[in-house]
Amino acid sequence: MKAYLVSCAELPTSDGDDDALVDALADVGVHAEWAPWDSSADFASADLVVLRSPWDYTDRLDEFLTWCATVPNLANPLPVIRWNTDKSYMVELADAGVPIVPTTLLHPGDRPQWPTGEFVVKPAVGAGSKGALRVAAGDHAAADAHWESLGVKALLQPYQSAVDNHGETAMVYFGGQYSHAFTKSAMLTDESRLDPSGTFIVERLSPATPDAPHRRVAEDTLDAAATLLGLHRADLLYARVDLVTGSHGEPLLLELELAEPSLGFRQTDHTAPMRFASAIRAALATR
User: Fold this and answer.
1) What is the distance between the alpha carbons of residues 205 and 190, in angstroms, rounded to a whole number?
2) Which of 180, 176, 181, 171 is nearest to 279 (CA)?
3) Is the N or the C terminus of the chain less surrounded, counting Cβ atoms within 10 Å?
4) Any keyword Flavoprotein (predicted)?
5) Same domain, 139 and 21
């Protein structure tokens, strides 16, 4: 059995977080190779093509989705990637009853009424916090300038101040089953942390053990997404649910990552890559 792990030209073997994955797959009889999505690799020859770090797609979304449509055995599947690479899905999840960070969609040409407190403006198509701006209360001039510079659909969200002390809790699932979690520190204040590849802002990560309310919201999020997509949760080879703490202490969905999430293998036990390899092997068995 053969699988491709998909990266980008700037990071042909990803950013190091997935280093144990090739060996973990070999242990269960799957030969895996890294290849940038826009390379000459014969993706059609693989039994499974797993998106891992194609992080330059944000500037080439149409081209990337066109490529995805040519790959016979893509994971996650093409409809999932189309839906999840545009963060407008947040509004759909809110309509489905998922507690989210309040989100307003901004379209090019809109003249937004900015909130009075701190808020965040970020592109609807983006990865690794690139293009996201935390705006200080009342600094509407900065917001106007950033909004004008973006020139694309964006999300407007009130800044959740608990992130400063507690960060985000990222919960990882393989084949619809919980694997592990890690915490990401606030990322919206220091552009100097841009990775040399230019594809993402370097995160400060640490292991996490989510409490019951976080677990419930993450589970509800996956169930709602699967329903919206007409899938079973098990059809999602990988998923990362990013939660923050709201002003009343409640967990809120910040993002649901189904396209190309970093999975935090270096922040958890050494068996996590084995769990992912097993999920990949199970996905191969259904094809």
Assistant:
1) 15
2) 176
3) C
4) no
5) no
Q: Are residues 77 and 108 in the same domain?
A: no
Share of the chain above pLDDT 70, in %: 93
Find tokens 């792990």 and name the residue: 5
Whether residue 166 is found in the same domain as residue 151: no
| Neighbouring residues of 39: CB distance < 8 A, sequence distance ≥ 6 | 9
78-134 confidence digits (pLDDT tens): 999 999 999 999 999 999 999 999 999 999 999 999 999 999 999 999 876 778 999
Confidence category of residue 49, pLDDT binned at 50, 70, 90:
very high
Domain that holds residue 40: 2-84
Confidence of residue 261 (pLDDT cuts 50, 70, 90): very high
Residue 141 covered by a domain: yes
User: What is the tally of structural domains in the chain?
Assistant: 3
Total residues found in the chain within this entry: 287
CA dist., res. 226 & res. 170, Å (int): 19
Written as six digits, the tokens of 144 are 């106007």
- At 209, the amino acid letter reads T
Task: Evaluate whether 10 touches 3 at the Cβ level (below 8 Å).
Answer: no
- Note whether 57 and 260 are within 8 A (CB): yes
Residues 246 and 151 in one domain: no
Whether residue 95 is found in the same domain as residue 192: yes
Whether residues 136 and 186 share a domain: the answer is: no
pLDDT value at 163 more than 80:
yes
